[in-house]
Amino acid sequence: MDAMRRPGTTFDVKSGMFVVLVRPEHPENIGLVARNMKNTGFIHLRLVGVNDLDQKTFQTAIHSQDILKSAQIYSRLEEATADFCVVFAATAKRRKNFTVLSLEDAVERLYQYPKSTKIGLLFGNERTGLTSEELKHSNFRFVLPQSTEQPSYNLASAVLLTLYTISIRAPRTFLTTWQEKPLPRKKQEECIKMILHKLEKDGFLHKTNKSHVTEMIYDVFGRLSMTERDRRLLLALFSRGMSESKELER
Amino acid sequence: MDAMRRPGTTFDVKSGMFVVLVRPEHPENIGLVARNMKNTGFIHLRLVGVNDLDQKTFQTAIHSQDILKSAQIYSRLEEATADFCVVFAATAKRRKNFTVLSLEDAVERLYQYPKSTKIGLLFGNERTGLTSEELKHSNFRFVLPQSTEQPSYNLASAVLLTLYTISIRAPRTFLTTWQEKPLPRKKQEECIKMILHKLEKDGFLHKTNKSHVTEMIYDVFGRLSMTERDRRLLLALFSRGMSESKELER
Fold it and tell me: How far apart are CA A189 and CA A181, in angstroms?
């Protein structure tokens, strides 16, 4: 249970993990997140839809200003996630078209990727959380266990519990079970968009089901954590006509 | 790992647990602690050395105002802990004369007491933590695992990680290993004071070692989580003269 005192494996892992705050509202929370990152040994912070960091942010980031200073700011979420290979998004609510893992399951899954995998951890706005549109840029959603439905965890608290669980669950040995590293999100999303485009052209996606089915497609193909081989297969499958794919079955 | 969704055992346990904030400075932190308590299913909050709760406190206690409204305010720590049977105190620093457990060990120990045991969880001032004088009112000290020495966890974060760990470590079955409930802290401390008094009268405690040995006595006899039987034995042991106790050995 002393995972955080073994710098060897955990440092490597954490250096590939990025905390991404999407449209955070309160500067104090950004500072508290930086402090919680420092406490648990995480380094990389990305901010989406935030103007310059103000004084209040630095006030709550006690002994953690370095994390704020090196934080990267993006105007659009998909730019912030483009180079990640796997993206986990925190959600406090059930989602109609997106499956949601428990925190423990998400952390277990996270440790199955090769060490060098760039992993993003997304946290949404304090009031709204992540929108369905924003969830499309994630491979997996996870929920923190809590006692009551209301209130949800405060933003900095949600980040802290996630990072703390990642830290104490760090495997002692690092036996990788998934040898293939997933593609960068940008490539994964390009593939998903091609599939959607094809489905629309074929009339499978139409006006009444489009938004609903689109989210489910993002969910299913996101959870694949698509590798280059998966991508080639999927593109082959979906670029064929229905009749041709039936031929394959024979 | 779904401990927080099993209301049966965990609720009972949590209803016997009290969060005690000692001289908290920032009203926002008190409100955040209330919210973190709500999230993890804890109810009882005691505050020491705090004047009335102000507006800022209620602002951060989103959906958790009930916890603040029923919070009990004390001017002295020993009044706040008098009716607890076991007291755990959070510390971020090593202590010269007090032993310190890991968070995991403290939580394991906490679940060994009978369900109905009143347990106090002490957290000190944001800047100073708990003083040695304040630690005397605890049975056990514990430290949260963290990545670096500086900064320590923010007050609300320290409370959150403690309550969260208590929640996810809740035993499925509740097999009690220590059948005897410890005495209320007030009685434990009366007994420790009688021992100290005797040691001083005997010249064992003197000017140069007094403060140092006193803390170690509090540590050792605190960790006993003294029962009525322990108390009787200790009083018998220490009220006897040295010669008499040697007689006993024969």
Answer: 16
